[in-house]
Amino acid sequence: MTKPGKFSIQLSGTFILLSIVISTLLAFSVGWISRLVLLTSAGINPFHTDSTAVALREASSSSSAIDAILDDGSSRGMSGKDVIKQLPAPKVLAGKQVPYTTYTSKSFPNEGTSTSNTLHIDRTVPLYISAQSKKEFDGGPDFRSDTKKSTGDDKGWKPLNVDPPCDACSRGKEKKNELSTTTEGEEDSAEASSINEDGHNDDSDGLHLPAGQHLLVDIKDVDSEFLNSEERLASAMIDLTNESKLTLLSYHCHSLVPIGVSCAGVLLESHVAFHTWPLEGVITLDLFTCGGGKLVPLMPLIERLFSVKQTPSEGENEEDIPEPTLLWAHKLRGFREGFAPGYVRTSNPLDEGLGWSVLGRLDFDMKRPLLSTKTAFQHVDIYEVLDPDHRDLESYQMSLSYTDGAYESMHPELFIPNKILFLDGVQQSTLYGDAPYHESIVHPAMFTHENPKRVAIIGGGEGATLREALKHNTVEKAVMIEIDEDVVQLSREYLKEWSDCSNLVGSANDCFEDPRAEVRYEDATQYFISGFPTDEAVNGSDKFDVIVMDSLDPNVKISYAVDLYSNDAYIESLYNGLTESGILVIQLGESNTDDDPADEVGKFENRAIIKEKLKEVGFKSMHIYTEEHCEFQWPWTILVAFKDANTKQNWHRSAAETDLEIRKRLLTTKSGRPALRNYDGATHYNYQLPPKSFEISYCRQEETPDECAMLTTEFVGVVEEDDSSIAYNPVVERRLNHIVKAENKAV
Predict the structure, then answer these.
(1) Annotated active-site residue in 202, 545, 550, 553
(2) Which end of the chain, N or C, is less surrounded by CB atoms within 10 Å?
(3) 550 is catalytic
């Protein structure tokens, strides 16, 4: 019995349990509905799942579901209403075998983003097409190698149950062509060749190299609406990967607050990412791949997809809208040497000067490939660039505007982009360095010779060395021996300035068409060895007064270059091919510095070899000079070798005497302007003394020459006049230079 005023309530366990369950369900329902409303209003799909998994589950029971995916790319929520933002899903390219991957992610709440979307690869389309057509993809013309016979139709589809394609790939990349006729003995060299060619970092042999390529792109003056559209940017990223035959596994995008978009995509080959600044009209993008396909050829595609021109506002003239400006750089990443059997860095153009002096620089105002091809002998690349350190884009654009009174409009030739020629990735010449280089390699020797009638040019495929030789009115025949005819024809098309003789009175518009010019497409070593085996066996009229060797640099580590500087028979034939007063000119590559060791033990070993061999075959005197304005990274070294020491007397002419010879010797011009742009008497005067760095290098030989210990004019007495040691001796030459000039002045 209870006390008055107090109550006792007894509840069963079942009632308590039901109350807890109902309360929990009610709270969950309210929270779920609130989440649905909030996410939908923000443009986020609250029911987002992996579309690939859903499609694959439904594909086994109903083809109509796949039809719906193919016919209607939109996605709907459970309510049937359209989602505000629907980004496209990446798809498997036909013919690609993409391995299944695990996916791990972690998202963090951030007030700086208004939307966040993650899309995964859609594997259903190739499966659906294969199931519907009873065919599978064998690669097609874009995927097959040239030597492979297709068992499919023109588009690459073949009936099922046919043997699978031999280029099924590891990590999505094509495997080595199993139909190759390479024999077992040729296998190693073929593999090395493949690695050093386009597949320098390819995984086609199953070897996953720790290396890749990185493409960095910055674009300004881009349409702001495009830069703030997550959907359009995502579509552009997918188009980029699809058209470049890359595989986009997934991507993740954020729309930022208050404006801007950031996206990152995971590729089977690595990654692609970008960030936008819509108010500033700027997007920065980077693409990294570990595949063998080249990335530089993708630049026109990137420009087309992402360089969207600004839309003029009301009343704004479309002509006043600037074109998007694109800056880009390409870099090789990772490690190849030591990981790829047979890989040689100097055989990969992207690992040479082309890679670090042009492609790797992001600060060029303009960088445009005019040509990239491979001949039977070498890679040929021609680039057009504007380096802001010398010429900027604004001045170039002003030179094209024809603005009255503007200096740029009156002198447009001073502001045009530079052109650069690369052979196997090694810079050969430039538009603005053309005159200093080619004039310095030809005219010092030509004006030293009393009457050069026959000139031979070894190499010089651009035609500029030939152009300079033809400027001399004494020249009756100029024979150019170039092994690669394609280089000549490509230069005539893309580097017309190099072989332009239209300003010379009595010549042709094209130097190659000058009646005095003879171009021979053959190996120069064989030409001279077979034509000039001995000094006596050749008719004197066939010999040359001047031979200019404008070929590969001596420090290029390839067999043909080494042969040019070390072949005894070839070097002797050069001596035999000269008249008694003949002069040989050889470009010896970049200059050494005060810190370099002796040529014999350093990177200039071939330079030391050819100097010694020239002395052995009989050249009486050799002299080295440098030209600093060739637009190479270093001053360029040139050697002249005199068959008769007496010929060298003209080398020490005064500047005024050389200028007089120039006026007497050169053809007149139609324009009335001087025929030479860099070389004159004062320039030649500076060539007469070898640089100090060559004296220092000479004295660093293992056995130090006696004269190096004295380094005063007193040591002259230890050198006899007919001593062969003075054939090349920069110490003697530098110390005797003032004496020789005094004697010449007295004469």
Answers:
(1) 550
(2) N
(3) yes
